[in-house]
Amino acid sequence: MTRIKLTVDGASVADDVEPRMLLVHYLREKLGKTGTVVGCDTSNCGACTVHLDGRSVKSCNVLAVQADGGEVTTIEGLARGGDLHPVQAAFRECHGLQCGFCTPGMIMQSIDLLGENPSPSEDEIRLGLEGNLCRCTGYHNIVRAVKHAAGEVTA
C-alpha cells in the first residue's frame, strides 16, 4: 500500500492505495465520485475525464499514486453554491447530451478546451473533443453547447 494525499473537489483527502490502482477507480470506489464514468479502461472514450492540476486527463490512464500531491476536479466539483458551471449550464440548455454516459467527460474536456481557446471555431471544438466519444452520435448539440459556453468561461 502507498499513502497518497491530494485535494479532490476542494476537499483534502489522504488514503492508502494499491500502487496499481487507477485514478478512476480511486475516485469512484474510495471517494464515491461516480460521475467519473468508466467507459473503456483503455483511454479511448474519454468518459473518465477529470482535471488534474487544472488540465484534463483520462483518469483510466493515470494511477492514483501519480495524483499524489495534486488537485483533482471531477464533474461533481464543478457546481458552486447550487449554480451550475457555465459549461454544465450550456450542455443543459443546448441539450448537449443524449444518454448522458459521455457527458461528464465531454464537459470536463470542454472546460479545458475553452480555458486554452475561449472563442473556438466549430472545427477547433471538434478537434479539441476528438478524444471523447459519444456513442449516441450527439456531437451536433455538444458542439452547440461548447459554442454557447464560449465567452462565459474564465480560465
Describe the fold and architecture.
It is a single chain. The chain is built from five helices and five strands. β3 (49-52) and β4 form a beta hairpin. 41% of the residues are buried. With 155 residues, the protein is an alpha+beta fold. The chain is 31% helix and 16% strand. Strands 2-1-5-3-4 form a five-stranded mixed β-sheet, covered by helices on one side.
List keywords for this structure.
5 strands, 155 residues, 5-stranded mixed sheet, 5 helices, globular, alpha+beta
Q: State the shape.
A: globular
Radius of gyration: 15 Å
* Termini separation: 36 Å
Mean pLDDT: 94
Model regions low in confidence, pLDDT < 50 over at least 5 residues: none
Largest sheet, described in full? 5 strands, mixed
Strand content: 15-25%
Helical content band: 25-40%
**How many E strands?**
5
The strand line-up of the biggest sheet is: 2-1-5-3-4
Order of helices and strands: EEHEEEHHHH
Secondary-structure content class: alpha+beta
Number of helices: 5
